[in-house]
Write a structure and sequence with these properties.
Blueprint: E1 42-50, H1 52-62, E2 67-68, E3 80-88, H2 93-99, E4 104-112, E5 121-129, E6 132-140, H3 145-149, H4 160-173, E7 176-190, E8 196-208, E9 222-223, E10 231-237, H5 243-251, H6 261-271
Antiparallel strand pairs: 1-6, 1-10, 2-7, 3-4, 3-7, 4-5, 5-6, 7-8, 8-9, 8-10
Length: 281
């Protein structure tokens, strides 16, 4: 599949054993109200690196419980493109906090799904607070990207508070464009009270850049070694880890691990001499 299509997330650690969470796991925080939130903005995450054979087995297992999301349904093979421009400080503060598994941390990114300028971009703050993942998101026009990053006011119809907070974080951190990360995703979701979303990400690539642009096409993309032979599986849920999923994880002997698309891409880029922390602003 190409990157031009018609268009229409160390991380969470294992809890309760090397192969996955305790089936009775029920986090202590209150249950979020997510009935209108398709992206599970307050959730828990488990991540795994799996093989193509495991991917096929997992998909066969979950289909009775879940269906493809509305974007995967539009693609012949179920995979749709995602690209994110990650921002960081000159000394790579956010990258370093991920590497050291800082308990409370965040990422700044601008996500897109198409090179068509008529489609919006999504300015996101993804926070990790203890074991909880919280995400705020603001929908912005492509042409306003550079204006937002300059700290100038941009007025949007919804989620203005999220955009204002994004700009505040950027200004406080002195954040700038650091890298583009792109991949193909297939997503399943279940509309139960305990919202569950399962995604498969492949063909992970990155490009070091200082440009305030979000795009999927072009040259000079580097393959991230994580998905050279594997696929990233993410299980996201809002209440407790479902018992039927716990059984699957154990049966396939899946090993939960910390996986960061941004941090591993920057590590590989720096190892190849494509980037280095800069001093001062």
């Amino acid at each position: 599949m190409g990157w031009t299509v018609k268009t229409v997330e160390a991380e969470h650690r294992s809890q309760g054993g090397a192969t996955g969470p305790n089936c009775d796991m029920n986090p202590a925080v209150g249950k979020p109200d997510l009935q209108t939130d398709r992206t599970l903005r307050c959730r828990y995450e488990m991540k795994y690196l799996i093989s193509a054979a495991q991917t096929e087995a997992i998909e066969q297992f979950i289909r009775p419980y879940m269906g493809l999301d509305r974007y995967s349904k539009l693609q012949p093979d179920g995979y749709y493109p995602i690209v994110s421009l990650y921002l960081d400080s000159n000394d790579l503060q956010l990258f370093r906090e991920t590497l050291t598994a800082k308990q409370n941390r965040f990422k700044l990114r601008i996500r897109g799904y198409s090179d068509d300028q008529q489609y919006p971009l999504f300015f996101e703050i993804k926070r990790r607070i203890n074991t909880v993942i919280m995400k705020s998101r603001a929908r912005v026009k492509h042409q306003d990207l550079a204006t937002v990053l300059k700290g100038l006011p941009v007025h949007i119809q919804t989620d203005q508070d999220s955009l204002d907070q994004f700009q505040l974080y950027v200004g406080t951190l002195g954040a700038r464009p650091m890298a583009l990360i792109r991949y193909l995703r297939k997503a399943y979701e279940a509309e139960s009270e305990n919202r569950v979303r399962i995604t498969f990400d492949r063909q992970l690539c990155y490009k070091v850049t200082e440009e305030p642009r979000v795009y999927l096409s072009g040259s000079s993309w580097q393959h991230n070694h994580l998905t050279m032979e594997g696929i990233i599986l993410e299980i996201k849920f809002t209440g407790h880890f479902p018992s039927w999923l716990c059984g699957m994880v154990r049966a396939l002997n899946l090993q939960a691990q910390g996986i960061s698309k941004y941090a591993t891409s920057i590590q590989q880029a720096c190892a190849l001499g494509f980037c280095a922390p800069r001093g001062g602003n």
